[in-house]
Write a structure and sequence with these properties.
The structure is a single chain. This protein has 654 residues and is mostly beta strands. The protein has three domains: 349 residues, Pectate Lyase C-like; 109 residues, Immunoglobulin-like (Sandwich), CATH 2.60.40.1930; 151 residues, Sortase, Chain: A (Beta Barrel). It is 3% helix and 44% strand. The chain has a 27-stranded mixed β-sheet that branches. The chain is elongated, with a radius of gyration of 31 Å.
Length: 654
């Protein structure tokens, strides 16, 4: 039997208490139990201007702060928060990343923020909810504005060590409070999951705008609390009088849970939501995929000016017991300030409770999409974008497109559009005709391909296209260069400058079959000649050539055959190389293996062929030195020919 409006209203007191966390006036001013410390005191970072770049993954037991007006660029790395000492009840509380005291702007990008995979231990009575409790947040905008872009937040929940005891109403993936002034936070291309109370939480004088993101599902660890994947509210800040948060949710996937999975409290009188509007003001929920179990969207506690339009509400999982199952629930008295426009529903006991909406067209259109990349080839770091042509969109409102860039690959034929190869995601609104994505920048060389998907809405079905088409493929490669002269015989060699002050070798090369084992130093071209290490026991990698481990291009390593007294250098026996022999170059602890496929010699009076110095095509390794020694009557010697060994990469992936 469907849940009636009378049943919901009869439970309104208990339901409201379960839906939203109780006001905690201390939140905006209290310091968390974890110490607030500048991020560069804990993590390996580099600061240029107002951008702090995280160089490697970082572990913390402290709340990491970002200075006013700064951007934290995670550079694809992860910050993991752990309890300081769970055995003593010293549990992590507060934020993992937050703005510094007094800071009013903070931006976060290209970062993963996570708690322990099993959650933070919740120990009673030390962390009882009856005690002053500073909350638990992945990212916290504490009375600040800013942005979150291409970020993942997960595992912000507690593991209750006293089963049967209710947990705290804490555990927000991203929380944004506006207290002393109007604040705005923009969230784009972000994923938040495995949270305890809310994935996104906006309160007070806060405008939170979210696009192209996936919020949910919440953690399934039993909590005995209602979980709300997205919350806009007028509670939990020091604003006086309370002010309702507002903003937009556009083109997102929002996944709600069920109170019955968080027992042991009675699931018949408590509910979880995908989106909770609790005393909010001016919230628009438009063109989202909303999946729920108890409630899809709940409009409650005096929320005003709510617009819920062109969303697809689905209920793929039915909880036991099935006490609610309402797509949109509008509290009595709020229908006049709530607009429901052309939403679709599937699997709910009751689609809309407390309000009505106009009927939509019955048959969605099937649009078509094709793409053309802006550049066939770019240099590392050079911007490029995708051009998207759409036809067949109906309804006059366009659609949300998600453009995903995959790579790097060794070739277009090797391209596969799967999550493990995704490097960039851009979400944008498109209409019929030509559209374009924001520009992207990538530094790793290789072949990249775009794939664009149109999200379904009330007027249109979803659409995409085949992966790896030539017109949507861009090669990121180093600039081409003229083949340099390589003097592997010591006489006439340009030695690398400032040898004594050079850093340790970043790589080593081994070729057991000829006894080659040497440090590899980065080298450059001066006046058309490749520099080589003065220490003949070292070899040099040409920086203009492909990097070791790149997906494409030729990596050039050259070395001396001997010193000025004809004592053997690192490549003394390179002329003995044979097809099938293996070479290993180790860089930053990672070994890259190659197999010799050819060997050739050339007259040293001429430059080597350009084919050994290309920056595109199959990744391979070229070793260069000298051979064919001539000894003159006066005892002087000279090597008359180059020896060039070519090896292909083995055990390569992507």
């Amino acid at each position: 039997m469907g849940v009636t409006r009378a049943m919901v209203l009869a439970r309104s007191g208990a339901l409201a208490a379960a839906l939203v966390v109780a006001p905690l006036a201390i939140l905006a001013s209290a310091q968390p139990a974890a110490a607030d410390v500048p991020i560069d005191d804990v993590c390996d970072t580099t600061t240029v201007g107002t951008t702090i770049t995280l160089n490697v993954d970082c572990l913390t037991t402290d709340a990491l702060t970002i200075p006013d007006g700064f951007t934290l660029n995670g550079n694809g790395n992860t910050i993991t928060a752990n309890d300081p000492d769970p055995s003593t009840g010293d549990t992590y509380t507060g934020a993992v990343v937050t703005n510094a005291a007094g800071a009013t702007t903070m931006n976060i990008e290209n970062l993963t923020v996570t708690g322990p995979d099993g959650g933070f231990p919740y120990l009673l009575p030390q962390n009882s909810c009856n005690s002053p409790f500073p909350g638990l947040f992945g990212i916290y905008f504490n009375d600040a504005s800013g942005s979150v872009t291409n970020v993942e937040v997960r595992n912000i929940f507690q593991t209750n060590t006293a089963p049967g005891s209710p947990a705290c109403g804490v555990g927000h993936g991203i929380r944004a409070d506006g207290v002393t002034a109007d604040r705005t936070v923009t969230i784009t291309d972000t994923e938040v999951s495995d949270f305890q109370k809310s994935g996104l939480f906006a309160s007070g004088r806060m405008t939170m705008n979210v696009t192209g993101s996936t919020i949910g599902p919440p953690s399934s660890v039993p909590f005995s609390i209602a979980q709300n994947s997205v919350t806009y509210t007028n509670t939990s800040t020091n604003s006086n009088p309370p002010v309702g948060a507002g903003g937009t949710m556009t083109g997102n996937t929002i996944i709600g849970g069920s109170f019955s999975s968080t027992g042991p409290a009675d699931p018949a009188s408590n509910a979880s939501t995908a989106v909770l509007l609790f005393g909010s003001n001016n919230v628009t929920i438009d063109k989202n995929q909303i999946r729920g179990q108890d409630l899809g969207v709940s409009v409650a506690a005096g929320s005003t000016n709510s617009v819920i339009s062109f969303n697809a509400f689905t209920r793929p999982t039915v909880p036991t017991p099935d006490s609610f199952g309402i797509g949109v629930s509008v509290e009595e008295g709020l229908a006049d300030t709530t607009d429901l426009i052309c939403n679709t529903f599937d699997g709910w006991n009751t689609n809309i409770e407390g309000d009505t909406q106009e009927a939509c067209q019955a048959a969605p259109s099937t649009p078509h999409v094709r793409t053309v990349t802006s550049h066939d080839r770019v240099s590392p770091g050079q911007p490029f974008y995708d051009r998207i042509h759409v036809r067949g969109l109906a309804g006059g409102l366009g659609a949300t497109a998600v453009a995903r860039l995959y790579g790097p690959f060794t070739s277009r034929a090797a391209a596969t559009c799967v999550p493990g190869h995704r490097v960039r995601t851009k979400t944008l609104h498109v209409d019929n005709g030509w559209n374009r994505t924001p520009a992207v920048h990538v530094n790793a060389t290789g072949v990249y391909t775009w794939r664009v998907s149109l999200r379904a809405n009330a007027a249109n079905r979803s659409a995409t296209h085949r992966c790896g088409q030539a017109v949507e493929t861009t090669t990121v490669a180093k600039l081409g260069y003229v083949a340099p002269i390589v003097q592997g015989g010591f006489s006439g060699t340009i030695s690398s400058p400032d040898l004594a002050r050079r850093a340790p070798a970043p790589a080593t090369i081994r070729m057991p079959a000829i006894g080659l084992r040497a440090p590899v130093m980065p080298e450059r071209v001066i006046d058309g000649r490749m520099t080589l290490p003065a220490n003949v026991g070292h070899v040099g990698w040409l920086r203009k050539s492909a990097g070791i481990g790149d997906k494409i291009g030729t990596s050039v390593i050259a070395g001396h055959v001997s010193d000025r007294h004809d004592n053997p250098g690192a490549m003394f026996d390179l002329s003995r190389a044979k097809a099938g022999q293996q070479i290993t170059v180790t860089r930053a602890g990672t070994p890259y293996k190659f197999k010799v496929v050819s060997k050739a010699t050339f007259d040293r009076r001429h430059r080597l062929p350009h084919r050994y110095f290309v920056t595109t095509g199959r990744h391979r390794l070229v070793l260069i030195s000298c051979t064919k020694k001539v000894v003159y009557p006066n005892g002087h010697f000279h090597y008359t020919r180059y020896v060039v060994v070519v090896a292909n990469r083995i055990h390569s992936r992507r």
